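TEACHING EXERCISE
Course module: macromolecular assemblies
Task: Read the component lines below, then compare them to the predicted structure of the full complex.
Student: A.B.
Group: 4
Components provided:
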Amino acid sequence: MSIANAPATGPGDAPAADGPGTPVLPDAPWRTTWRRLWSDRGSRTALIAAALLILIALTAPLLSRLGGWSPTAFDAGAIDPYLGGLPHGALGGISAEHWLGVEPVTGRDLFARVVHGAQVSLLIAFAATAIVVVTGTAAGIAAGYFGGRVDTVLSRLMDLTMSFPSLIFMIAMMSVAQDVNRVVLMTVVIGVFGWPGIARVVRAEALSLRHREFVEAARACGSGPWRILTRQVLPNISGPVIAYTTLLIPGMISTEAALSFLGVGVRPPTPSWGQMIAEAVAYYETDPMYFIVPSVFLFVAVLAFTVLGDALRDILDPQGGRP
Amino acid sequence: MIAYLIRRCLGVAGVLLAICAVTFTIFYLLPADPAAAACGKTCSPERLAEVRHFMGLDQPVWRQFGDYLVGIFAGRELGSGPHAIQCGFPCLGYSYENALPVWDLLMDRLPVSVSLAFGAACLWLVLGLGAGVTAALRKGGLLDRTLMVGAVATASLPVYFTAVMLLYGLVRLTGLLPYPAYVALTDDPFAWAANLLLPWVALALLYAAMYARQSRSSMIETMEQPYIRTARAKGLPARTVVVKHGLRSAMTPVLTLFGMDLGALLAGAVITESIFGIPGVGRLFYDALQRSDQPVVLGVTLLAAFFIVAANVVIDLLYAVVDPRVRS
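Instructor-supplied answer key:
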């Protein structure tokens, strides 16, 4: 199956880039991956979009200063008090002053808010993904490599976690906890329910690696389990893990947005995309731009990471290991 | 087969017990004191103690949990003395909000959520599998690429965005559909369907997109198997090869996914229900959270877990019937 899928990814793996003078050494794996990602129009666009979003999230304070507004500053001059607080001007008050318009009633700058929202949304999504990947990989390797009782206990725990109604549970936990750092809490709550998926994939990989010749050889040479795990097993499962990690991110972004949409995520005035959309729902007819701006950001983020994840999976893990 | 069934059911009981314990620990150890909330602002310490006793909150946690568990299977008496309330067989406690039995509240809302879930499930299975299998059979073609681009874009749209857009387009702008207001199936089947159509479509679009992606990759993988080549080589008509040999085994992973998704939705699609204002279990849950009505929150969580586990068992049993190797 791996052979059948490999040529489908197109001309990216052709060694055409090598000039006559270059030595014909095989490329480092990450270079091959990079070249194949870049050669496909869809994944290249996704890569650029994802990189842009990350850049926006990283430089949010700088960008909003560039725009001239802080995400929490009110601008009474930008809204029309006689029209129920709707923004002055067409398209939700888009102007040279407010690049993406303003919020109705408060007149807060949408550009500053959506940019800061990117920071919160992506921070939570990435941190939760990190938790999921680290715990999931550790549990999967332990279960698959050691087998026996460790495997039984961990597999049961995976089944149990997967039987939890995760969204309902997350909502409940988020609304029960009152006075803690919402961003940290949200990251942990989202992360707790995600690990069994990747653990199963890793477990299956580790199980098949356990009796391969090179692992046996390392064992025969007297390597301890820690050395074998870090030097033999881990590098060999890194492909599927990277692909799966990228595919986890869009789900995490959506979950964060859903929780914030329901009002149990980050608390105002800290902006997040889901929360902004929730506030904008009431205005979708009178001020559609207010609703569309955060929705477009959320949509692009989820789409970009999904396309990127798909492409990485085709390159790094062509034969499956799908959840 | 019988032994397998018994083993499976014991496993289910264990999982449900564990979920119950975890849920109970989290929600009953929280800082907010429901007795103080129920008693109001002008509450004397004696009265508060009375309320706490009545709610069973003066007992140690393990004792409360034990009572709760016993209550589910045998019913129990809440409080003591002349004011005691008898809570019958599936006793999940009483709502702090309106003093109604949680079980009755759940059963009241369940038909709504089940209507929503099943309608949407039918729709997304037809759309998703149709698109996925069509795309797989024309792998690499224009139709395949169009469908898959559409699927990945649709799957990236949050359900609340789709819902608002549908509301705007089909209700406000054109008036093709009524604004969703739940009508019971037994009252008026036509109005039931017309009112639920919008939520069905909103929910189904998201899942259809995911199922299209899943079933496409599964179908492509199956169609590359040697036994498909054999079936073709012995001269079976293309239709038989695709439907009887291909589809049958390609649907196995999709079926697992379907069990999980449907199970999770049966106990309420929280977001969809709160957007369309449908009075289902998800809405009940959301409202209960706003008022920290813990017995209701706990009840919905348990119901949801029950549906997920039950759906898993049903799917496993289906496998066991189809594939004898599973039973061992």
